[in-house]
Amino acid sequence: MENTVQFAEIIVDINARSVDRVFHYAVPAELKGQVKPGVRVLVPFGKRRLAGYVLGFGYPQQDIKVREIAGIIDREPVLTEELLEVALWMAKNYLCSTAEALARIIAPRLGVKATRTIRLLKPAFPAGKSQEVLNRLRHAPKQTAVLQQALLNQQLTRKELAAAAQASLSTVDTLVRAGLLETEISHLPNCREESGAVHVGDSATRLNTDQAKAVRKISQTLTEQRFGVFLLYGVTGSGKTEVYLNAISSALAMGRQAVTMVPEISLTPQMIALFRARFGSQVAVLHSGLSGRERYKEWCRVKEGRAPVVLGTRSAVFAPLPAPGLFILDEEHEPSYKQDARLRYHAREVAIKRAHLAGAAVILGSATPSLESWFRAGSGGLYKLLRLPHRINKKPLPQVSVIDIRKEMKDGNQGIFSRRLVTAISDRLKKGQQTILFLNRRGYANFLMCRECGHVIKCNHCDISLTYHQGGVLRCHYCNYSVRRPSICPYCGSRYIHPFGAGTQKVEKEASQLFPTARILRMDSDTTAHKGAHEKIINAFKQGKADILIGTQMIAKGLNLPAVTLVGVINADTSLFMPDFRAAERTFQLLTQVAGRTGRGQLPGEVLIQTYNPEHYSITAAARHDVEGFYSVELPLRKSMHYPPFSYLARLLFTHADEVEISKGTILAKETLDKILVGYDNFIEILGPAPAPLSRIRGHFRLQIVIKGHHRRDLRDIIGQCLDYLQKLRPAFKPAINVDINPQGMQ
Ligand code: ADP
Ligand code: ZN
Ligand code: ZN
What we know:
By secondary structure, this protein is an alpha/beta fold. The protein folds into five domains: 6-110, PriA, 3(prime) DNA-binding domain (GIY-YIG endonuclease), CATH 3.40.1440.60; 118-186, Arc Repressor Mutant, subunit A (Orthogonal Bundle); 209-394, Rossmann fold, CATH 3.40.50; 399-444 and 502-638, P-loop containing nucleotide triphosphate hydrolases (Rossmann fold); 648-741, Alpha-Beta Plaits (2-Layer Sandwich), CATH 3.30.70. Helices cover 33% and strands 22% of the residues. The structure holds adenosine-5'-diphosphate (ADP) and zinc ion (ZN) (2 copies). Residues 450, 452-453, 455, 489, 491-492, 494 line the site of one zinc ion (ZN). Residues 450, 452-453, 455, 489, 491-492, 494 line the site of one zinc ion.
């Protein structure tokens, strides 16, 4: 047939499971050739006009009345076919709507605000009416010319249209007033600009044997254009960055592009400098700290292949590379790679998916790999393990000592500082050297701890510490087991069993009493609330304007502070007993990282860790710098408890303002899950409902159900069915539900 109608398959931009499917729309003749996969269009939907994403072309079912695409938003596709594929995968994997996934992929760089909007003029009548309208205007040749141009090309602005028709602007305006032309707002101007010169620095550094070996393995995969995931396990200061830079060069040599991610914006300046020195103007930076304009500009440079080296935080994983060759995650174990609001994706998983689709390589770099990655890099695993076992300059790792605070108590020292830590700080003050005091407050650690033996009451079933609630109840927030608070320690019989936790302000106060002449800086979420405060404090400390820096985990990373010769960890227990199955892993990673902060300069460093649990394996392993020793204890424990990496975990978080509604709702959800579960043979466990650790936020109650299973697909199926069922019960079913697959912390 000559005049076949083309049907586009479109995801309409509505974030709802019930309409999360492909809709068919006819492509009007005048838009043929412009409607392409990855382009956004306007479509009629019910009585509304909504944006939609074109996935491809196909045929609708026979009996369905197909409507026409009303207009086009993008001149060029904003999504490659690979990224469209990633969106579909995200929807399936994270149980979000496809529209939400698509919006997430483009939003950070292409939101309405991020771009200059342009107004396009197009005919305001249906294509079939053109002849009739032109007939009516046959005595107005200028207007006819304008209209003909508008029919031919719907991507013209007012000025462009006038120029194309060799008419005046007022002729165009007359047609607008007559209702024959209408304005359409487009959010994607043509982003082409003159390309700057490319400067490329030389790779001055000669790689050592281990680095060279790692680079060779990665380059081989790149050359063969195969999919491969590498775990680059290298101690702090072993030169991982140099491996990244060389691997990126290999990818560029193959005509492909590379994305490098770092866990936090505050780490990017150092990396940017390094990358610019090596790759010059080929580097694009993508992170949420940029203004919409800057981000959009960088996004364009990446999309057009002019900036093949992308550096950024988590969201850079969606960079629109024309031919992705390499994805790098530095400090791959960092929880910040997981977005923990709204669409809860993990940048590591997305990177691996993209690499799989594109036949690209992934490098996961860390001195303390996540248990999951370590396990997958094990014998016969999916990842290839590359090791950098030595520090570059042969600098020794710092001396780490563990201080038993129980003993301080016994000897009558009730303060936050142990005698040994006080002596060590005084010594540094005398010598004019610097000290960092580190207080881990990640998570919400309202647990009960015995001050005499260090015992913390845990859930027998889940092996996480019970959370202490007002009124004296201890509760497991995975399975909801609860007991009354004991008045004596069930382990040693001591009466000194109390809720635990000291804040940075308290540490600061006690420090200034102990060391009245010392200059002290404090860095926590209070003192860094405004923009730039973080850098200010760090810079002041770097310039020697203070003797002691007190801070939370935000000071643990990436800082290179040569004058620091002492790091004191105020108490390791806060992180050790946060109610999370990863508590030991996080503690180990944090302590190892903190230890890596010292002894970077000429002077040797010392680390003192205070704890009520000096024999705990994550503390002893960190003190010995024994990464593999830690895994060899932790892995079997995870296995026995059916925790990742031996299972998959999902959390359903329910929120609602009404206590009765939320309790009714979560019980119903649990019953629904139990019913669905009847058809499954594989190991699956449903825990709760239980209050979330933050059980109430802004008047909203928060309850959670935790699901464990051996197969990710089972979790997906079961939760999907449950959501669909509950959706049908709305509005009688009230609570909002948020799904988190593979949660990295549950607050
Ligand atoms: P990591 O990221 O593994 O902690 P870095 O990449 O920061 O380690 O490297 C530590 C230091 O060693 C850096 O100052 C880096 O420039 C330097 N370095 C890396 N590789 C080499 C090399 N082959 N020869 C000399 N110095 C190197
Ligand atoms: Zn439990
Ligand atoms: Zn005790």
